[in-house]
Design a protein that fits this description.
This protein is of the alpha+beta class. The protein has eight helices and 20 strands.
Length: 377
């Protein structure tokens, strides 16, 4: 985190700790149950999500020529690769023969080979080889991987799920603050996939309020963190920061001696459903997508590292760190989201966001606006 931003967040949080307050909004927010259980509402949301740009990774995952990474976004298999000349390219990760994936995981490659029939592609997506090519006569001319829009603004990889998706200004006014991080050199440590029995918006929401800390995280977050939090919105995106309890010790320390990083956790919400979690020596990206039904979603949790992981000791450290993250999210947060989903499906009339949950108001408003635009199409 840039020094000036860290100082600003620390000042705001210390003022809240002094007054036992937090950033709030003027009124409560009412979200009808239909937003979480109605099939027509869900289908409209899926259509909207397929039209907008998605942040899917750190540019450091594909920093050098030949480096590639594969992602799944709403069921679309995606391949992102750094070409030989340094350009970033995105493709549908599907062979032009039958559609099988030509790459898996992440790594470095000079070409991609389909495991089904051996068709090969260059890092530019062009078909370079097909066994028994003469059996296909002229039908292979111009065939290759389907290109997708891709960018690397502020050190983050953004893609569109269909050709023609406008991704040029996907980060908007948040691009400048995010560019101060080291995302361009952030490496991939591990990714885990989870299927959660809750609406995708509820799964996103668990990351943006501390009201639940004493009840859900009594043995994990609550002993070390508090809800004297601050928040900001940046167009469709947002930022929520909550402090570690010991930050109060900085109240009597000159600002020149404050730590370089904010002593707490900073959570960015990148429209529509990507969550960046930044804390001292801890970097995570959550990507949340709808499942097949309103009450289902898929969550990808990725842990990043500032340097390449090369030793068994480092691999073990990141494995244990990922376990700790999954303990908080998968054993505490997501079960609560699933419980909320069951209540809504059972007839609870609405979801209520309090004045002390401003970072739930903001995405709810943005999603509602984006959905209205989709319905008007």
């Amino acid at each position: 985190m840039p020094r000036q931003e860290s100082l600003e967040l620390t000042r705001r949080v210390l003022k809240h700790l002094e007054n036992d307050t937090l950033d709030t909004v003027e009124d409560v927010w009412h979200e009808p149950r239909e937003a979480f259980v109605d099939r027509d509402h869900f289908e409209a949301e899926v259509a909207m999500l397929r039209r907008v740009p998605h942040v899917i990774g750190w540019a450091g995952e594909v920093a050098t020529p030949g480096q590639y990474t594969t992602k799944d976004v709403m069921g679309v298999p995606i391949l992102v690769v750094r070409g030989r000349e340094g350009a970033l390219r995105g493709f549908v990760n599907g062979c032009a023969h039958r559609g099988a994936q030509v790459a898996d995981g992440c790594g470095t490659a000079r070409m991609f080979t389909c495991p089904y029939h051996g068709w090969t592609y260059g890092t530019d997506g062009r078909l370079t080889g097909a066994p028994a090519r003469k059996m296909f006569a002229g039908s292979l001319e111009g065939r290759g991987l389907i290109p997708l829009p891709v960018s690397e603004h502020a050190g983050l990889i953004t893609v569109g799920l269909a050709p023609g998706t406008d991704i040029d200004d996907a980060l908007g006014e948040l691009a400048e603050p995010l560019s101060q991080y080291d995302f361009g050199t952030r490496h991939h440590a591990e990714t885990r996939r989870f299927e959660i029995a809750t609406n995708w918006k509820l799964a996103v929401g668990v990351n943006f309020e501390g009201y639940h800390f004493p009840y859900v995280h009594a043995d994990t977050l609550d002993p070390i963190a508090c809800n004297n939090s601050v928040c900001d919105s940046y167009g469709r995106h947002n930022r929520w920061a909550f402090p570690f309890r010991d930050i109060v010790n900085l109240a009597d320390v000159p600002e020149s001696d404050w730590p370089e990083q904010f002593f707490g956790t900073v959570v960015y919400g990148l429209f529509p459903s990507c969550v960046l979690i930044e804390a001292p020596a801890s970097y995570q990206m959550l990507r949340v997508y709808p499942g097949r039904n309103p009450g289902e979603c898929v969550v990808y949790i990725t842990y990043g590292s500032p340097t390449p992981i090369t030793t068994d000791q480092e691999r073990e450290w990141y494995r244990m760190s990922m376990e700790a993250v999954c303990n908080v999210l998968c054993n505490q947060d997501f079960p609560m989201a699933e419980a909320c989903q069951r209540g809504l499906e059972g007839g609870v009339a609405e979801v209520l966001f309090g004045r002390n949950e401003p970072m739930l108001h903001h995405p709810a408003s943005v999603w509602r606006q984006a959905l209205a635009e989709e319905v008007r199409r």
